[in-house]
Amino acid sequence: MNNTTTRNKVWTFCVIYLGYMLLFADRTVFNLALAGIGKDFNMSPAALGAAGSAFFLGYTLMQIPGGYLTDRFGARAVVISTLILWSLLTGFTGLAWSFSALVIIRFLFGVAEGPYPAAALKQVAQNHPKKKRAQLTALLMSSNYAGAAIAPFIIVQVIAASGWRSAFYYLGAFGIILVGLYALSDRKVATDTKKSTTHKINWRELDARVWLFVVLGLALNVITKGLETWMPIYFLTSQHLELKKLAWLVPLPTIAGGIAAAISGYLMVHLFKKKEVLMLITACVLTLLFMFGLFRSQSLFWIVSFQILTYFAKSLAFTGIFDFASQVLHDDSYGSAIGIINFGGQLGGFIGPLLIGWIVQLTGSYSAAFLGLVISAVIAVITSFCIKRDQ
């Protein structure tokens, strides 16, 4: 491989990484804006939960079709289309004129963004040998946490200065710039694959581990997305923190999650080689223990500490699913299989915010909501014990 090809592959990876960062930064921005949105539209906690879940409903529904479209038309075409639609709908989020309009826009937002994970992960799989995929997959997925961690430092200032709508205008503009950067990537390196003619997904013969990955990802993401959506409001209303202080508090768990995601591939390849399932089990058990600690905590220090630890352990487990999958799934149907696996994770993202909003409105207690997340962690542990290394 010559130096030019190597540089082009690095460039392509970096742009895809930035795209993933941007997509997840939007979710953090929306969570930070929820308090202002609720005030402007006079929304109840359950309605706020529905607004947060609308995105994940559209995003979840597009995981499997998005994987198919990636295998059919190629990763490059899907990434470009996704980023363009995402940027436009980001701007429309800032233009929302009613609660109903906001929910519809966020749902369409999710539909537009849905194909990105399968396309991004498939492009990494195509551009790099199998022995490097687990670590590069982990590094790419750490962008999710990087975007969520960096966004508050910038966006909180924007919201405080000019309101929540302006934040989405800035994000949309940056998305358009990113489309241009990605379009400059070398077409040969980007590996614009054509439709697959072999190894199509056979639902009846699908690797049983894929379905376990779906359940595991669902249970883990109920925890993460539930906390991501509601912890800013919890800190503002129950802990009575000022908005500007959230700029320093909210990123801490996501930074921990990003570190865990970045190192998960290394851990799986070097410390848990041929024992990948043991890594998943260990991370799930730790997630349960730390989530229980969060549920039992009363002081702000321990709430934040256990939230950070929960994110770290959960990120090891969730990213580990994709690290493991990158080593055992077939190349030609990789996009479709990733779409199926990510469907479970994003279904959890849809359920989590809605579940917490419903429990808080029903009981008036965040403690009861945290208990629901502990139960989700129990499901993750049970599922992890059912996974086999060899199929």
Q: In a few lines, what is going on in this structure?
A:
This is MFS transporter. Helices cover 84% and strands 0% of the residues.
SSE layout:
Blueprint: H1 3-41, H2 45-61, H3 63-73, H4 75-94, H5 99-113, H6 116-127, H7 130-162, H8 164-183, H9 187-190, H10 208-237, H11 243-249, H12 251-271, H13 276-296, H14 300-328, H15 334-363, H16 366-386
Structure description:
The chain is 84% helix and 0% strand. It has 391 residues and is an all-alpha fold. The chain has one domain (3-190, 201-386): Growth Hormone, Chain: A, CATH 1.20.1250.20. Helix 2 packs antiparallel against helix 15 and helix 4 runs antiparallel to helix 5 (99-113). The model is unreliable at 190-199 (pLDDT under 50).
Corresponding CATH architecture: Up-down Bundle
CATH superfamily: MFS general substrate transporter like domains
How is the main sheet built? none
Radius of gyration: 20 Å
Q: Which overall shape is indicated by the principal axes computed on the Cα atoms?
A: globular
Amino-to-carboxy terminus distance: 34 Å
- Give the fraction of residues assigned to helices: over 70%
Mind telling me the CATH class?
Mainly Alpha
Order of helices and strands: HHHHHHHHHHHHHHHH
- Strand residue percentage: under 5%
Mean pLDDT: 80
Main location: membrane
InterPro entries: MFS (IPR011701), MFS_dom (IPR020846), MFS_Na/Anion_cotransporter (IPR050382), MFS_trans_sf (IPR036259)
Pfam family, one: MFS_1
Domain Major facilitator superfamily (MFS) profile: 12-391
